[in-house]
Amino acid sequence: MPQHWAGAYNSTMTSTTTTTTSSTYDSRVFSLETMTVPDGTETILRGGRHLFPLLPQAFAGVRRIGVIGWGPQGRAQARNLRDSLTGTDITVTVGLRPGSASAADARAHGFTEADGTLGDWLAVTADSDLVILLIADAALAAHHQEIFAALKPGATIGLSHGFLLGHLRETGGDFPPGHGVIAVCPKGMGDSVRRLYEQGAEINGAGINSSYAVHADPDGHATDRALAWSVALGSPYTFRTTLESEYLSDIVGERAILLGAVHGIVESLYSRYRLAGDDETTAYERSCENVTGPIARTISRAGIRAVRENLDPAGRDVFDRVYTATYTPAREIVAEIYDEVADGTELRSVILAERRLGARPMSEIGGSPMWSAGDRVRARRGERELPVDPFTAGVFVATMTAQIDEFAERGHPWSEIVNESVIEAVDSLLPYMHARDVAHMVDNCSRTARLGARRWGPRFQAAYAQIAYPAAEHPADQALLTAFDTHPAHEALAAAAKLRPSVDISVTAQPK
């Protein structure tokens, strides 16, 4: 049986191609803080709009930032960067491929050819000192050599995902020499990056947390440029990782607790509740609505352990049996996902799918019977306060804990673990799913995430229906419950929560 995390962990992942040293991570501009985590400390930067005046100094040598792409992240990051740098001599320009359907929307948000803030992607690349690559993963894999060839000497390459590193390793390639390579990776979808940044106008520090990585630093300014980028996005706190570690945790997470597992959980629970006699609306409330609503809110406001503690004795007994029945099959699947991401299998499947599907639309998952009840449930939300369902809570919390334990065993730093496994889920993705529904999220996310959710969601669904739910009829495993109650993740999550201002993370309208 897979074991809970029970001891030491490595504070950073090692990367054979990283060209930085520990001294690279010292900032000349920002005052860094030390955050206490289980068995050690981590150095982080606390964000806030009071740091905006330091951005020109931190963006040393950068006079033009090119944001390549206008997907959800490009759309949010370009706007946040532009707004944060208003009044400075740094220009933010959006680069799009010829004939891009996104050009009209970029113009509608103030990026235009007339003022030089909108142009051809390769021309923008050639004219920028920091080139932030936010096009789709498969497109980046196909076109990165063109982009690299267009870079001006000494320009810094910026990424918000480590997918390209994985692709380069698979194909024997590398980043071009003489260029800094940094990453700032918001722990949330583009809509949340923009929406919570806008809240920061009223509540200083509101935003989405980000990790940062320095993969190559030829001029010694990469760390401050990365931190400035994160501050300009509005991140409440920024924590250090490596490009490899970010890639692994991000790809695994979106196939597990961030998206794929959520889909499998709610589908399996809806079927179980319907078979037990619930009508469609009640079954939807006990499954999908419970995960995206009261369970997510409880974790966001009070932590994972509070989900169990807030139940009455009868509900706690149900939670305990379901939690311990679900943990082992969840851990097995998360470990399998991690292995396939780490050895390149998952990356190759994304590239192959892109070649096979091309520009053809993918079929949608929202046609199964449960999703027809979503509109009725959302329409009656104001009638009562939906309580946490203990059975659903046991399944979800066990899956979340399984991912936390797998990341800890694999050596990820605690900031990355709790952000990728908890905070991103409850402060970004689940609120969005609550407003739209899980099926809408799966059908409208990035191609990489969508392919992963469609592949692994049914694996969770089948394992839970076939293994976990029958086992939940038996008494709870007390050793697993003790491990959960004393889990170091509670301490790490509490430390991270202290850095986040109190903001309303709900989604009430379509993104602007």
UniProtKB/TrEMBL annotation:
<feature type="region of interest" description="Disordered">
    <location>
        <begin position="1"/>
        <end position="22"/>
    </location>
</feature>
<dbReference type="Pfam" id="PF01450">
    <property type="entry name" value="KARI_C"/>
</dbReference>
<dbReference type="Pfam" id="PF07991">
    <property type="entry name" value="KARI_N"/>
</dbReference>
<keyword id="KW-0100">Branched-chain amino acid biosynthesis</keyword>
<comment type="pathway">
    <text>Amino-acid biosynthesis; L-valine biosynthesis; L-valine from pyruvate: step 2/4.</text>
</comment>
<comment type="pathway">
    <text>Amino-acid biosynthesis; L-isoleucine biosynthesis; L-isoleucine from 2-oxobutanoate: step 2/4.</text>
</comment>
<comment type="similarity">
    <text>Belongs to the ketol-acid reductoisomerase family.</text>
</comment>
<dbReference type="InterPro" id="IPR013328">
    <property type="entry name" value="6PGD_dom2"/>
</dbReference>
<keyword id="KW-0560">Oxidoreductase</keyword>
<protein>
    <recommendedName>
        <fullName>Acetohydroxy-acid isomeroreductase</fullName>
    </recommendedName>
</protein>
<feature type="compositionally biased region" description="Low complexity">
    <location>
        <begin position="11"/>
        <end position="22"/>
    </location>
</feature>
<feature type="binding site">
    <location>
        <position position="250"/>
    </location>
    <ligand>
        <name>Mg(2+) 2</name>
    </ligand>
</feature>
<feature type="binding site">
    <location>
        <position position="254"/>
    </location>
    <ligand>
        <name>Mg(2+) 1</name>
    </ligand>
</feature>
<feature type="domain" description="KARI C-terminal knotted">
    <location>
        <begin position="242"/>
        <end position="384"/>
    </location>
</feature>
<feature type="domain" description="KARI N-terminal Rossmann">
    <location>
        <begin position="45"/>
        <end position="245"/>
    </location>
</feature>
<keyword id="KW-0460">Magnesium</keyword>
<keyword id="KW-0479">Metal-binding</keyword>
<feature type="binding site">
    <location>
        <position position="250"/>
    </location>
    <ligand>
        <name>Mg(2+) 1</name>
    </ligand>
</feature>
<keyword id="KW-0028">Amino-acid biosynthesis</keyword>
<dbReference type="InterPro" id="IPR008927">
    <property type="entry name" value="6-PGluconate_DH-like_C_sf"/>
</dbReference>
<dbReference type="InterPro" id="IPR013116">
    <property type="entry name" value="KARI_N"/>
</dbReference>
<dbReference type="InterPro" id="IPR036291">
    <property type="entry name" value="NAD(P)-bd_dom_sf"/>
</dbReference>
<dbReference type="InterPro" id="IPR000506">
    <property type="entry name" value="KARI_C"/>
</dbReference>
<dbReference type="InterPro" id="IPR013023">
    <property type="entry name" value="KARI"/>
</dbReference>
